[in-house]
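Z., the sequence and structure:
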Amino acid sequence: MPGATRPLHVSLVAIPDAVISTLTGIYDVLGSFRMLGRLEPSIPESPPFTVEIVAIERGTVALASGVPVEAHRSVSEIATTDIIIVPSVLLGHEGASARTVPIDTPALSTKHSFSFAAKLLRGILIP
């Protein structure tokens, strides 16, 4: 199809201190084009985004409220992404914790050190 562009890849980050309503709300909004495009002709049916929930490891992540969410892929499985979104997080009086930035996780070895955000930025955005 001439003039067609590929959808932007969005990595929506699931971390244990993330607020589920923010994470799922963003996921729903960015993924709603097919459904809404059938109802409203001014909305493109072809989605401009491909959205994936990502985490340190693929699989279930219990968020701040304890509600689990399924990470489609681990960060180490992603070769490239266009947009990284970290949803709002619930922090206590002491601020960020090891739950928020699990720097002792094997996926964050010396090759991709510092924090989960650094792993995303270094491993995905910077070739």
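The chain is about 20% helix and 20% strand. Helices lie at 20-30, 33-37, 116-125.

Let me know what you think.
H.
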